[in-house]
Give the backbone structure.
Amino acid sequence: MTAAGGWGLEVVYPAWPHERILLTHGSGMPHREPHGDGWWHVFHSHYSELRAVGFSPSGRTLAVATSSDLTLWTRAT
């Protein structure tokens, strides 16, 4: 999943069934570069099932939906 400006998302399962959402920017490659240097761990599903994750059409809002919550992040540009 990608958005304008070089932003991307990766869903990983290091401790299935607890998903983690990683936000990447530019050439950020999770697990190949230090955390915070092109990628960030932004969400960890502990108690609820992950239902959906993605960017808005403008690419300025990131949504993560679980079976119990909806979390939104926005950026100015």
Q: What stands out?
A: The mean pLDDT is 86. DSSP finds no helices and seven strands in the chain. The longest strand covers residues 7-15.
